[in-house]
Amino acid sequence: MNLSESLANMSIQNDNTEQIQKKREDYIGWTDYFMAVAFLAAKRSKDPHFQVGACIVNQDMRIVGVGYNGMPRGCSDDIYPWEKGKKKLYVCHAEMNAILNKNSSDVWGCTIYVKLFPCNECAKIIIQSGIKEVVYVSDKKAKKVEYKASRQMLKDAGVICTQYKPKVGTIVIDFDEDNDSSPLETEKRSE
Ligand SMILES: Nc1ccn([C@H]2C[C@H](O)[C@@H](COP(=O)(O)O)O2)c(=O)n1
CMP/dCMP-type deaminase domain location, by residue (predicted)? Predict the structure, then answer.
């Protein structure tokens, strides 16, 4: 008797009326999942113009780092400037934060999922850290010199860059989905 026959048999013995349940089919795929983590991280950004998120995944499909664009630790995001032209002196990019936030010894051979194609500074860090693949959604800054440079460096360093079109347009997170009756009571937390 093979595994599925013996599992079916066990189910019949436990309850004669029980139907064998098939797995659900509308779960999200790996790439949508990792990209969604990057997009969710971006929601933490305080940048009023551009929110970017990044998620680094190792060869075992484990998330080893997540980051978003923000001011460095200790540099108040209420005081440091968010204006175009000024913020670039201070803001840490999502990719850099994801690499620095890693919970593994290194990110060698990993894939980074990002909302936006990396700039030249992030490309250097991606290459030097051993990341082997960049999966991105938006390429809206492609014409800028920094992004032309990053594309060239990533290409020459053999880092595969793939623009990704998510399989689904939106992913809805409903915090109430397992609550049968009363809506979730919100608890005030400091953020
Ligand atoms: N690959 C990127 C590109 C940009 N960011 C961040 C940095 C800024 O907060 C914002 C864009 O700024 P701008 O280029 O308009 O001066 O997005 C990032 O995290 N990763």
Answer: 29-161
What is d(CA 99, CA 164) in angstroms, rounded to the nearest whole number? Answer: 21
CA–centroid distance, 43 to ligand 1, in Å, is 14
CB 186 within 8 A of CB 157: no
State the ipTM, two decimals: 0.93
Q: Which residue has the tokens 């051979």?
A: 109
Please say if 95 is a catalytic residue.
Answer: yes
CA–CA separation, 34 and 83 (whole Å): 30
Classify the C-alpha dihedral 168-93-65-46 as positive or negative. Answer: negative
pTM comes to: 0.87
Query: Ligand 1 site: residues with CB under 6 angstroms?
Result: 47, 49-50, 52, 69, 84, 87-88, 91, 93-95, 116, 118-119, 122
Region class of 165: left (phi > 0), else alpha (psi between -120 and 50), else beta: beta
Q: Return the closest-CA partner of residue 41 out of 117, 114, 108.
A: 114
* pLDDT tens per residue, range 100-148: 999 999 999 999 999 999 999 999 999 999 999 999 999 999 999 999 9
* Catalytic, out of 5, 25, 83, 95: 95
Task: Give the whole-angstrom CA distance, residue 13 versus residue 105.
Answer: 48
- Give the DSSP H or E segment for 127: helix 120-129
- Residue of the nearest CA to atom 19 in ligand 1? 93
